[in-house]
Design brief:
Elements lengths: L1 H5 L1 H23 L33 E3 L5 E3 L7 E7 L7 H14 L6 E7 L7 H10 L7 E4 L3 H10 L20 E5 L5 E6 L3 H15 L1
Parallel strand pairs: 3-4, 4-5
Antiparallel strand pairs: 1-2, 3-6, 6-7
């Protein structure tokens, strides 16, 4: 070993190898390890009573919704995909325009990546018909193959928000008077697990979301 270390060429080779592995180690250590969220990880106010003690194996529920083209969209369309979910309504003039602009930013960032999709659900489905969603999609640069903006049964949508994606604090059963309004973006992986929750109106959180998407893709 001493002879090898006294050889300048051998010493340089060993030193270079050590530096190489050190750099790889540092690079891997810099990646954020994304958690897997289960009902017990959330504020109990966000979670239906029947799910609050569930600490593992939570996956988002199957869904059946209608998109801006009048097509039925289900979990099969998102199978083996990473996707981001939000809850909006087209007549919203406060947080929704900001959220939709940020979803468009994410869409354009991953425009050519087939592993990422987006999903928006209307919280006023009785008002957001297919024609209304089509105009909204046109006005906001939606690429149909990347981003579904959807309407459907109100109880179904509100059940997904409360029991599947844990997107809202308010309680209700999706009846006529029920209304939810949340800035949350939810990141779902290819196994239908929740991997992150972000404020869709906060630019810093959008930057982090993009990094986390890249982390999942890689």
């Amino acid at each position: 070993m001493r002879d090898r270390m006294n050889n300048p060429r051998e010493f340089f080779r060993i030193f270079s190898t050590l530096i190489f592995f050190a750099l790889i180690s540092c690079d891997q250590g810099s990646e954020r390890q994304l958690p897997i969220y289960n009902p017990s990880d959330f504020n109990p106010d966000l979670v239906d009573k029947s799910l609050r003690n569930k600490s593992k194996y939570h996956t988002v529920s199957d869904f059946s919704l209608t998109n801006q083209n009048g097509e039925i969209i289900s979990q099969k369309d998102y199978e083996n995909k990473i996707y981001v979910v939000d809850f909006i309504f087209t007549r919203c003039e406060t947080i929704c325009p900001i959220m939709t602009a940020n979803m468009e930013e994410i869409q354009n960032k991953f425009k050519y990546n087939k592993e990422l999709l987006l999903l928006s659900l209307s919280v006023t489905p009785e008002l957001d018909s297919v024609s209304v969603l089509r105009k909204y999609a046109n006005d906001n640069g939606v690429i149909d193959s990347k981003w579904n903006i959807t309407t459907g049964d109100k109880k179904h949508i509100y059940g997904l928000a409360r029991k599947s994606y844990f997107a809202v604090v308010t309680r209700g059963d999706g009846d006529l008077q029920d209304f939810i309004h949340t800035p949350n973006f939810i990141l779902v992986d290819k196994k239908k697990q929740i991997r992150g929750i972000y404020d869709g109106t906060d630019n810093n959180e959008i930057v982090q979301l993009i990094k986390d998407i890249e982390n999942l893709i890689n």
